[in-house]
Amino acid sequence: MAVMFDRSITTITGVIRILITMTAGLALTQPLADTCSFAYAVEPNSPNASHAVYCLNSEAKIEQDSQEGTESSSEKAPSPLASITKIPVLGCYPGYAAYDFPVDNIRYDKLTHISYFSLMPLANGDLDISEVDVTDLEDLVARADANDVNTLITVGGWGRSTYFATMAASPRARANFATKLLQYCLEYSLDGADLDWEPVSTVRDRTHYSLLVERVHEEFEPFGLSLSISVSSYGQEIMPEAIDFVDSLNVMAYDGTPPYHSTFDFAVSALDHWEDYGAPREKLTLGLPFYGKNEDGTGYAYHDIFDAYHPGPDTDFIGGIGFNGINTIKDKTVYAVNNGYRGIMIWEISQDTTDGSSLLTAVADAITSCPPADLDGNGRVDLNDFQIFASVWQGDSNDDNYNPLCDIIRPLDSVVDGRDLAAFCRDWLASRQMVFPPCRARERVFTNDDSDASQQTNRVIMMSHKRVY
User: Fold this and answer.
1) Pairwise CA distance, residues 381 & 223, whole Å
2) How far is CA 70 from CA 15, 19, 47, 75, 401, in A?
3) Fewer CB near the last or first residue (10 Å), C or N of the chain?
4) Which residues pair with 282 in a beta bridge?
5) Helix (H, G, I), strand (E, B), or coil: what is residue 443?
6) Of 146, 176, 153, nearest to 163 (Cα)?
7) Helix and strand tally (H, E) in the chain?
8) DSSP string spanning 142-166?
9) Where in the chain is the domain with CATH 3.20.20.80?
10) What angle in degrees, to the nearest 10, is found between the helix axes of 203-220 and 171-187?
11) What is the pLDDT of residues 104-145, one digit of tens each?
12) pLDDT tens-digit profile of 404-459?
């Protein structure tokens, strides 16, 4: 692809801005290391014709010239970093928790999606809405909308999936279910639904579930409603070809062998299973438990565990109960983000604490504390990160020195290209005005302890061709 440069260079307080006119896509003909004085802050596929390029040594603020004119500097623009790290965080909210945890207690600023639990399907495809408090649901939707959070409705769940098999086996019942669910979502201004058939235990059920998912997708798509399904850690709830009809597979990577029912390795293995089954990473959402279990499998809400034992952030077992402490929650979150998975799902948010021990805060902190361009995890985006990025510029996963952390833009395409460069530059410039704590979970090693300092480029520890956590 050709790129034609119309350069208009103006020096303003040390800022060099080069206007680039894009004729078709983005291509830089010289190695990135040779152009390291400049950050090409290009937004591919932008409707704007020109894009700003900034000197990395400046104190420049990100701005973009539009075809209509330059926006006033007094207008508050969204953080460029926030636009990159807007990782979906879905919090499940059971209606039965409303008495002790009303909807106004939900911390909407830490979530991107909330799923109200739950409707129950009936054998003929009708919906049992008896567990839904309409007043709470309407209040939830209003508060979520005010905070730019999407609201979903869960259908089914453990103990509420009795009639899924009968309903899904009937074409007429499937059609009725899809229509009724669409009507329900539209009536209450919901953004979509999460289907949670537990358990799907036979090939026959799996086939019927796949047909049901396809039917609901057909109803939802014209209205722009999202459709997800919750799946067990090592399940096969739907046929691989039916994955195309869902926006997300919410992997319930918990309820393994108690008391250590949801370790870090267990979560990684669950994601591996679904990826091997045919699900792309951008559709896999990692489920986190906000509860623990003892050896008998009895569950305990995280807030009860904390109130009783006050565990430290690095503690995952106390009082005979296995759970996910703050550091494990952070490690799982960073792993999901770094490896290009869709995001995080939480079961469930009423089980959390509300102070500094909060697991939801740990999720949010993990997402924002490691900007994608902080490749060495030292808490800032600097020249060392740029050296790492430049060393693999225009490389792909077939190269020996390929570093997947440099493949910043999601979904990952295994190529470090102009889209990733644009994201790196936005991170760099945004981070000049922000402070991040070091990213404990992003490990690093040097290629050779005895090599020249200029060659001591931080390298990612590769695990099955994945990014490190």
Assistant:
1) 41
2) 16, 13, 14, 11, 40
3) N
4) none
5) coil
6) 176
7) 11, 23
8) HHHHHTT-EEEEEEE-TTS-TTHHH
9) 83-369
10) 40
11) 999 999 999 999 999 999 999 999 999 999 999 999 999 999
12) 677 766 555 678 888 778 777 877 776 655 444 454 444 432 233 333 333 333 32
Locus of tokens 């289907």: 195
Say if residue 444 is exposed, middle or buried (CB neighbours under 10 Å; 0-12, 13-18, 19+). Answer: middle
Q: Which residues of 15-43 are buried (b: 16+ CB within 10 A; e: fewer)?
A: bbbbbbebeeebebeeebeeeeebbbbbb
Instruction: Name the helix (H) or strand (E) containing 195.
Output: strand 192-196
- Asked if residues 68 and 92 have their Cβ atoms less than 8 Å apart, the reply is no
The tokens 């509860």 sit on which residue? 291
The SS3 call for residue 300 is strand
Strand 53-55, strand 317-318: pairing? unpaired
Tens digits of residue pLDDT in 308-341: 999 999 999 999 999 999 999 999 998 898 777 9
The pTM is what? 0.70
Distance CA 288, CA 347 (A): 6
Lowest model confidence (mean pLDDT) among 70-84, 111-125, 276-290 = 70-84
DSSP structural state of residue 268: H
Q: Which two tokens stand for residue 426?
A: 């936005």
Burial of 193 (0-12, 13-18, 19+ CB in 10 A): buried
DSSP string, 374-426: -TT-SSS--HHHHHHHHHTTT-BTTSTT--GGG--SSSP-SB--HHHHHHHHH
Tokens representing 246 are 């869902």
**Homologous superfamily of 83-369:** Glycosidases (3.20.20.80)
392 closest CA partner among 416, 422, 409, 426: 416
Is 25:4 a contact under the CB 8 Å cutoff? no
Nearest to 293 by CA among 318, 271, 270: 318
Question: How long is the chain?
Answer: 469
In the numeric block, which tokens belong to residue 74?
């007094």
Q: Which two tokens stand for residue 296?
A: 């008998």
- Tokens representing residue 98 in the block: 């409303």
Rounded to whole angstroms, how far apart are CA atoms 107 and 353? 11
Structure tokens, 208: 């019927």
Cα 20 to Cα 9: distance, rounded to the nearest angstrom: 11
Tell me the one-letter amino acid at 69.
G
